[in-house]
Specification:
Layout: E1 3-7, H1 12-23, E2 27-32, H2 35-49, E3 53-57, H3 63-74, E4 82-85, H4 100-128, E5 131-136, H5 146-165, E6 171-176, H6 185-188, H7 193-196, H8 205-218, E7 222-223, H9 227-238, H10 241-244, H11 247-250
Parallel strand pairs: 1-2, 1-4, 2-3, 4-5, 5-6, 6-7
Helix pairs in contact: 1-2, 1-8, 3-4, 4-5
The chain binds NADP nicotinamide-adenine-dinucleotide phosphate (NAP).
Length: 258
Protein backbone atom coordinates (compact mmCIF):
# COMPACT_ATOMS: atom_id res chain seq x y z
CA UNK A 1 0.00 0.00 0.00
CA UNK A 2 1.38 3.47 -0.82
CA UNK A 3 1.23 6.01 2.01
CA UNK A 4 0.26 9.69 1.80
CA UNK A 5 0.82 12.34 4.45
CA UNK A 6 -1.68 15.20 4.30
CA UNK A 7 -1.32 18.38 6.38
CA UNK A 8 -4.48 20.30 7.24
CA UNK A 9 -6.43 17.04 6.90
CA UNK A 10 -9.08 17.93 9.50
CA UNK A 11 -11.10 20.22 7.19
CA UNK A 12 -11.67 21.56 3.69
CA UNK A 13 -9.27 20.69 0.86
CA UNK A 14 -7.07 18.50 3.09
CA UNK A 15 -10.07 16.45 4.16
CA UNK A 16 -11.05 16.02 0.50
CA UNK A 17 -7.51 14.89 -0.36
CA UNK A 18 -7.57 12.37 2.50
CA UNK A 19 -10.94 10.95 1.47
CA UNK A 20 -10.04 10.61 -2.22
CA UNK A 21 -6.63 9.07 -1.43
CA UNK A 22 -8.16 6.56 1.01
CA UNK A 23 -10.65 5.62 -1.72
CA UNK A 24 -7.68 5.08 -4.06
CA UNK A 25 -6.14 2.66 -1.52
CA UNK A 26 -3.53 4.90 0.12
CA UNK A 27 -2.69 4.43 3.79
CA UNK A 28 -2.66 7.87 5.37
CA UNK A 29 -0.90 10.01 7.94
CA UNK A 30 -3.24 12.90 8.79
CA UNK A 31 -1.84 16.09 10.34
CA UNK A 32 -3.60 19.12 11.86
CA UNK A 33 -4.00 20.68 15.31
CA UNK A 34 -7.47 19.33 16.12
CA UNK A 35 -6.85 15.76 17.29
CA UNK A 36 -10.53 14.95 17.80
CA UNK A 37 -11.41 15.79 14.20
CA UNK A 38 -8.46 13.75 12.96
CA UNK A 39 -9.54 10.76 15.05
CA UNK A 40 -13.09 11.00 13.65
CA UNK A 41 -11.62 11.12 10.13
CA UNK A 42 -9.40 8.13 10.93
CA UNK A 43 -12.41 6.06 12.02
CA UNK A 44 -14.48 7.13 9.01
CA UNK A 45 -11.78 6.35 6.42
CA UNK A 46 -10.65 3.08 8.00
CA UNK A 47 -14.26 1.84 8.17
CA UNK A 48 -15.15 2.96 4.64
CA UNK A 49 -12.00 1.97 2.77
CA UNK A 50 -10.09 -0.55 4.93
CA UNK A 51 -6.89 1.53 4.87
CA UNK A 52 -4.58 2.39 7.79
CA UNK A 53 -4.88 5.97 9.03
CA UNK A 54 -2.28 7.34 11.44
CA UNK A 55 -3.22 10.45 13.43
CA UNK A 56 -0.37 12.92 13.91
CA UNK A 57 -1.60 16.06 15.68
CA UNK A 58 0.74 19.04 15.27
CA UNK A 59 0.74 22.81 15.11
CA UNK A 60 2.95 23.43 12.08
CA UNK A 61 3.71 26.94 13.35
CA UNK A 62 5.58 25.35 16.27
CA UNK A 63 9.15 24.37 15.37
CA UNK A 64 9.32 21.29 17.59
CA UNK A 65 5.94 19.97 16.48
CA UNK A 66 6.85 20.60 12.83
CA UNK A 67 10.09 18.67 13.35
CA UNK A 68 8.09 15.67 14.63
CA UNK A 69 6.15 15.69 11.36
CA UNK A 70 9.38 16.09 9.34
CA UNK A 71 10.88 13.10 11.20
CA UNK A 72 7.82 11.04 10.29
CA UNK A 73 8.12 12.13 6.63
CA UNK A 74 11.80 11.11 6.55
CA UNK A 75 11.37 7.79 8.41
CA UNK A 76 12.98 5.16 6.12
CA UNK A 77 11.07 2.34 7.84
CA UNK A 78 7.68 3.85 6.97
CA UNK A 79 8.13 5.68 3.63
CA UNK A 80 5.79 8.47 2.53
CA UNK A 81 5.00 8.15 -1.19
CA UNK A 82 2.87 11.29 -1.48
CA UNK A 83 3.20 14.46 0.61
CA UNK A 84 0.38 17.01 0.44
CA UNK A 85 1.49 20.30 2.02
CA UNK A 86 -1.98 21.77 2.39
CA UNK A 87 -2.41 23.32 5.89
CA UNK A 88 -2.94 27.06 5.78
CA UNK A 89 -5.10 29.99 6.75
CA UNK A 90 -5.80 33.60 5.83
CA UNK A 91 -5.01 36.58 8.02
CA UNK A 92 -7.78 38.68 9.50
CA UNK A 93 -5.84 41.93 9.29
CA UNK A 94 -3.76 43.89 6.80
CA UNK A 95 0.03 43.85 7.25
CA UNK A 96 0.07 47.36 8.76
CA UNK A 97 -2.80 46.54 11.14
CA UNK A 98 -1.46 43.15 12.22
CA UNK A 99 1.06 42.17 14.91
CA UNK A 100 4.44 40.88 13.77
CA UNK A 101 3.85 37.70 15.83
CA UNK A 102 0.74 36.83 13.79
CA UNK A 103 2.58 37.60 10.56
CA UNK A 104 5.50 35.36 11.58
CA UNK A 105 3.18 32.53 12.58
CA UNK A 106 1.42 32.84 9.22
CA UNK A 107 4.76 32.68 7.40
CA UNK A 108 5.82 29.68 9.52
CA UNK A 109 2.70 27.68 8.56
CA UNK A 110 2.41 28.77 4.90
CA UNK A 111 6.12 28.86 4.03
CA UNK A 112 8.47 27.37 6.64
CA UNK A 113 6.40 24.20 7.12
CA UNK A 114 6.30 23.65 3.33
CA UNK A 115 10.08 24.19 3.16
CA UNK A 116 10.92 21.82 6.02
CA UNK A 117 8.50 19.02 5.03
CA UNK A 118 9.45 19.24 1.34
CA UNK A 119 13.13 18.97 2.30
CA UNK A 120 12.49 15.90 4.45
CA UNK A 121 10.33 14.32 1.73
CA UNK A 122 12.44 15.06 -1.34
CA UNK A 123 15.62 13.61 0.13
CA UNK A 124 13.87 10.37 1.11
CA UNK A 125 12.00 10.20 -2.21
CA UNK A 126 15.10 10.87 -4.30
CA UNK A 127 16.99 8.12 -2.49
CA UNK A 128 14.13 5.71 -3.38
CA UNK A 129 13.77 7.12 -6.92
CA UNK A 130 10.02 7.80 -6.55
CA UNK A 131 7.50 10.03 -4.82
CA UNK A 132 5.20 13.00 -5.27
CA UNK A 133 4.91 16.33 -3.45
CA UNK A 134 1.81 18.49 -3.89
CA UNK A 135 2.11 21.98 -2.40
CA UNK A 136 -1.24 23.74 -2.08
CA UNK A 137 -0.65 27.31 -3.19
CA UNK A 138 -3.33 29.66 -4.57
CA UNK A 139 -4.40 31.77 -7.54
CA UNK A 140 -3.53 34.59 -5.12
CA UNK A 141 0.12 33.62 -5.76
CA UNK A 142 -0.21 35.31 -9.18
CA UNK A 143 -1.37 38.57 -7.55
CA UNK A 144 0.37 41.13 -5.33
CA UNK A 145 -2.11 41.35 -2.47
CA UNK A 146 -0.90 41.21 1.11
CA UNK A 147 1.38 38.75 2.86
CA UNK A 148 -0.96 35.82 2.01
CA UNK A 149 -0.33 36.27 -1.71
CA UNK A 150 3.39 36.88 -1.08
CA UNK A 151 3.63 33.62 0.90
CA UNK A 152 1.69 31.70 -1.76
CA UNK A 153 3.94 33.20 -4.48
CA UNK A 154 6.83 31.64 -2.60
CA UNK A 155 5.02 28.27 -2.57
CA UNK A 156 4.38 28.36 -6.33
CA UNK A 157 7.91 29.44 -7.30
CA UNK A 158 9.50 27.06 -4.79
CA UNK A 159 7.48 24.14 -6.20
CA UNK A 160 8.40 25.02 -9.79
CA UNK A 161 12.04 25.24 -8.80
CA UNK A 162 11.98 21.93 -6.93
CA UNK A 163 10.19 20.28 -9.88
CA UNK A 164 13.11 21.36 -12.12
CA UNK A 165 15.67 20.17 -9.58
CA UNK A 166 14.05 16.72 -9.37
CA UNK A 167 13.30 16.29 -13.09
CA UNK A 168 14.30 12.81 -14.23
CA UNK A 169 14.75 11.46 -10.67
CA UNK A 170 11.33 9.83 -10.34
CA UNK A 171 10.16 12.55 -7.92
CA UNK A 172 7.26 14.77 -9.03
CA UNK A 173 6.53 18.17 -7.51
CA UNK A 174 3.44 20.26 -8.17
CA UNK A 175 1.96 23.56 -7.02
CA UNK A 176 -1.83 23.39 -6.81
CA UNK A 177 -3.26 26.89 -7.29
CA UNK A 178 -6.97 26.97 -6.45
CA UNK A 179 -9.27 29.97 -6.72
CA UNK A 180 -12.18 30.31 -4.29
CA UNK A 181 -13.07 26.93 -2.76
CA UNK A 182 -15.99 26.30 -0.39
CA UNK A 183 -14.23 25.32 2.88
CA UNK A 184 -13.82 26.74 6.38
CA UNK A 185 -11.05 29.05 5.09
CA UNK A 186 -13.10 32.23 4.66
CA UNK A 187 -15.07 31.85 7.91
CA UNK A 188 -11.85 31.35 9.85
CA UNK A 189 -10.34 34.47 8.23
CA UNK A 190 -13.40 36.59 9.02
CA UNK A 191 -14.27 36.94 5.32
CA UNK A 192 -17.94 36.98 4.29
CA UNK A 193 -17.93 34.22 1.64
CA UNK A 194 -21.21 35.47 0.09
CA UNK A 195 -19.62 38.84 -0.67
CA UNK A 196 -16.16 37.52 -1.57
CA UNK A 197 -17.00 36.22 -5.05
CA UNK A 198 -19.97 35.48 -7.34
CA UNK A 199 -21.32 31.91 -7.43
CA UNK A 200 -19.59 30.82 -10.64
CA UNK A 201 -16.18 31.57 -9.10
CA UNK A 202 -16.56 28.97 -6.34
CA UNK A 203 -14.95 25.55 -6.70
CA UNK A 204 -15.96 22.33 -4.98
CA UNK A 205 -13.15 20.86 -2.85
CA UNK A 206 -13.72 17.23 -3.98
CA UNK A 207 -13.75 18.23 -7.66
CA UNK A 208 -10.62 20.36 -7.10
CA UNK A 209 -8.78 17.34 -5.68
CA UNK A 210 -9.91 15.09 -8.58
CA UNK A 211 -8.66 17.69 -11.10
CA UNK A 212 -5.39 18.10 -9.18
CA UNK A 213 -4.65 14.36 -9.14
CA UNK A 214 -5.44 14.13 -12.87
CA UNK A 215 -2.91 16.94 -13.41
CA UNK A 216 -0.33 15.02 -11.34
CA UNK A 217 -0.74 12.08 -13.72
CA UNK A 218 -0.22 14.43 -16.69
CA UNK A 219 3.01 15.76 -15.14
CA UNK A 220 1.63 19.30 -14.71
CA UNK A 221 3.89 21.46 -12.52
CA UNK A 222 1.48 24.35 -11.83
CA UNK A 223 -2.12 23.12 -11.64
CA UNK A 224 -4.90 25.72 -11.90
CA UNK A 225 -8.22 23.81 -11.80
CA UNK A 226 -11.39 25.37 -13.23
CA UNK A 227 -11.82 26.97 -16.67
CA UNK A 228 -12.57 30.38 -15.12
CA UNK A 229 -9.27 30.37 -13.22
CA UNK A 230 -7.30 29.11 -16.22
CA UNK A 231 -8.50 32.21 -18.12
CA UNK A 232 -7.62 34.48 -15.17
CA UNK A 233 -4.21 32.82 -14.82
CA UNK A 234 -3.44 33.35 -18.53
CA UNK A 235 -4.53 37.01 -18.35
CA UNK A 236 -2.47 37.63 -15.20
CA UNK A 237 0.62 36.03 -16.74
CA UNK A 238 0.55 38.56 -19.55
CA UNK A 239 -0.70 41.56 -17.55
CA UNK A 240 1.62 44.43 -16.59
CA UNK A 241 2.59 44.34 -12.88
CA UNK A 242 0.65 47.58 -12.35
CA UNK A 243 -2.54 45.56 -13.08
CA UNK A 244 -1.46 42.61 -10.93
CA UNK A 245 -1.16 44.90 -7.91
CA UNK A 246 -4.19 47.10 -8.71
CA UNK A 247 -6.29 47.19 -5.51
CA UNK A 248 -9.57 47.24 -7.49
CA UNK A 249 -8.65 43.87 -9.02
CA UNK A 250 -7.09 42.24 -5.99
CA UNK A 251 -9.25 43.70 -3.18
CA UNK A 252 -11.46 40.61 -2.92
CA UNK A 253 -8.43 38.60 -1.84
CA UNK A 254 -7.49 41.06 0.87
CA UNK A 255 -8.36 40.62 4.51
CA UNK A 256 -11.51 42.61 5.27
CA UNK A 257 -10.26 44.16 8.49
CA UNK A 258 -7.41 46.62 8.92
N1 LIG B 1 -10.54 27.83 0.38
C1 LIG B 1 -9.99 28.60 -0.56
O1 LIG B 1 -10.70 29.41 -1.21
C2 LIG B 1 -8.54 28.47 -0.89
C3 LIG B 1 -8.09 29.04 -2.10
C4 LIG B 1 -6.75 28.92 -2.44
C5 LIG B 1 -5.88 28.24 -1.62
N2 LIG B 1 -6.34 27.72 -0.42
C6 LIG B 1 -5.36 27.02 0.42
O2 LIG B 1 -5.82 25.70 0.63
C7 LIG B 1 -5.25 25.19 1.84
C8 LIG B 1 -6.34 24.53 2.65
O3 LIG B 1 -7.29 25.51 3.02
P1 LIG B 1 -8.85 25.19 3.15
O4 LIG B 1 -9.54 26.09 2.21
O5 LIG B 1 -9.10 23.76 3.10
O6 LIG B 1 -9.10 25.80 4.61
P2 LIG B 1 -9.77 25.15 5.93
O7 LIG B 1 -11.05 24.46 5.58
O8 LIG B 1 -9.81 26.26 6.92
O9 LIG B 1 -8.71 24.04 6.39
C9 LIG B 1 -7.43 24.42 6.82
C10 LIG B 1 -6.72 23.22 7.39
O10 LIG B 1 -5.39 23.64 7.81
C11 LIG B 1 -5.20 23.23 9.16
N3 LIG B 1 -4.31 24.16 9.85
C12 LIG B 1 -4.46 25.50 9.97
N4 LIG B 1 -3.48 26.02 10.72
C13 LIG B 1 -2.68 24.97 11.07
C14 LIG B 1 -1.50 24.85 11.86
N5 LIG B 1 -0.95 25.91 12.48
N6 LIG B 1 -0.95 23.63 12.02
C15 LIG B 1 -1.52 22.55 11.45
N7 LIG B 1 -2.63 22.59 10.70
C16 LIG B 1 -3.21 23.80 10.52
C17 LIG B 1 -6.61 23.18 9.76
O11 LIG B 1 -6.71 22.27 10.84
P3 LIG B 1 -6.68 22.61 12.42
O12 LIG B 1 -7.46 23.86 12.63
O13 LIG B 1 -7.27 21.37 13.04
O14 LIG B 1 -5.22 22.77 12.73
C18 LIG B 1 -7.41 22.64 8.59
O15 LIG B 1 -7.31 21.24 8.55
C19 LIG B 1 -4.58 26.38 2.52
O16 LIG B 1 -3.19 26.33 2.29
C20 LIG B 1 -5.18 27.59 1.81
O17 LIG B 1 -4.32 28.69 1.85
C21 LIG B 1 -7.64 27.80 -0.07
Amino acid sequence: MPTALVTGASAGIGRSFSTRLARDGYDLVVVARNEQRLTELQRELQDAHGVQVEVLPADLGDRQQLQRVADRVADPERPIDLLVNNAGFGLRKSFVGNTIEEEENHLDVLVRAVLVLSHAAVRAMRARGSGTIINVSSVASFLASGTYSAAKSWVTVFSESLASETAGTGVRVMALCPGFVRTEFHGRAGIDADKAAPGFMWLDADRLVDDCLADVERGTVVSVPGKQYQVIHTLLRHAPRAIVRNPRIVSRHRPNKS
